[in-house]
Amino acid sequence: MSATREDSAPCAIPSKLWRECLKQYDYGPDRPKGACVAHRTKFYDCVKDWTARTQKRPYSYTLFELPKSCGHEAEKLHQCMMMNMFEVGHCQKEMAVLKRCAARADPEVRTYLQGDEAIADLEKDIEETTGLKRVWYKAIGKL
After folding, report:
1. Which top-level group of life is the source organism from (predicted)?
2. Where are the domains of the chain?
3. 22-65, pLDDT tens digit by residue?
4. CA distances (Å), 7 to each of 3, 12, 14, in order?
5. Deepest in the core among 93, 101, 126, 138, taking most CB within 10 A?
6. Contact, 67 vs 105, CB < 8 A?
7. Does residue 116 contact residue 102 with C-beta atoms inside 8 Å?
8. What is the C-alpha to C-alpha distance for residues 109 and 73, in angstroms, rounded to an integer?
């Protein structure tokens, strides 16, 4: 069930079928053994096929690993996601902090995230906070 033409969602049908199967069992771990394995296998096969057809070089997991310096930010995002039942909308700030860290550490990520609104908003918030601290320290004579 792989896509025959290049599009933005080459494996949309297999992923939808897999999601529907999981949804049928409320995404619970107590579903019958092997209930959605066929759908999962079709989805992964589709992704492998699409990757083989479109990638110029072989896939390497190490290309997408976070820099070690961003481990703390990644952990904060993970904790937020777990606390919010993996609803991404509740963890936008943590995601922006992680993006910012990764962009600082990796030039390729920096290029990709150039102009990202979430990072720009975070930078603005940090600048406002830092600016207020600076004014306060200047006022009390610590600068």
Report:
1. Eukaryota
2. 12-57, 66-139
3. 888 776 677 778 888 899 999 999 988 988 888 777 666 666 67
4. 8, 10, 15
5. 101
6. yes
7. no
8. 16
pLDDT tens for 98-130 read: 998 888 888 888 888 888 888 888 877 777 777
pLDDT at residue 1, rounded to an integer: 45
Of 90, 73, 70, 72, residue with least CA distance to 81: 90
Torsion, Cα 131 74 57 46, to 10 degrees, reads -130
* Contact present, 88 and 65 (Cβ < 8 Å): no
Q: What is the pLDDT of residue 63?
A: 65
In the chain, the amino acid numbered 137 is Y
15 CB-side CA count, 13 A: 7
Q: Work out the average pLDDT over 125-141.
A: 74
Q: How far apart are CA 132 and CA 129, in angstroms?
A: 5
Q: Tokens 């069930």 belong to which residue? A: 1
Q: Hey, what's the torsion of the CAs at 81, 46, 25, 23, to 10 degrees? A: 60
